[in-house]
């Protein structure tokens, strides 16, 4: 079994910054792409940013230039630095990881979500 532990959400004023972290633990052979998604009230879950094990990153257009995703492969952890936050960034943020529990078994795991609220 694999667990994803998220932390770092909270309440911040518009223009402020927050840092989210997600650590994968458990029966891990290797961790492939790790991502942050978000879901606002009444909206569908959307990709915010992703990072491969090799460090290649991808961002939603709405967060480019404001958010930065980074990764610590030794600790199976990703960090999302969020700057210049806007009210529209308010959402529950979820971590997702593609994990190999053995060389031929690949699974997708989700964290429990962490609330980010940006007040305007």
Q: Keyphrases for this structure?
A:
single chain, mainly beta, four-stranded antiparallel β-sheet, 11 strands, 0% helix
What does this structure look like?
The chain is mostly beta strands and 120 residues long. Helices cover 0% and strands 62% of the residues. It is built from no helices and 11 strands. Strands 2, 4, 5, 6, 9, 10 and 11 form a 7-stranded mixed β-sheet that branches. A 4-stranded antiparallel β-sheet has the order 1-3-8-7, with no helix packed on it. The chain is elongated and about 45 Å long. It starts with a strand and ends with a strand.
In brief:
Helices cover 0% and strands 62% of the residues. It has no helices and eleven strands.
């Amino acid at each position: 079994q694999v667990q994803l532990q998220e932390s770092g959400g909270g309440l911040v004023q518009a223009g402020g910054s927050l840092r989210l972290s997600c650590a994968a633990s458990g029966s891990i052979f290797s961790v492939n792409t790790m991502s942050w998604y978000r879901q606002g009230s009444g909206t569908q879950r959307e990709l915010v940013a992703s990072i491969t094990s090799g460090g290649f990153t991808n961002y939603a257009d709405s967060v480019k230039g404001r958010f930065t995703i980074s990764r610590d492969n030794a600790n199976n952890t990703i960090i999302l630095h969020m700057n210049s936050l806007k009210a529209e960034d308010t959402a529950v943020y979820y971590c997702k990881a593609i994990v190999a529990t053995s060389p031929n078994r690949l699974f997708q795991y989700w964290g429990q979500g962490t609330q980010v609220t940006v007040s305007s």
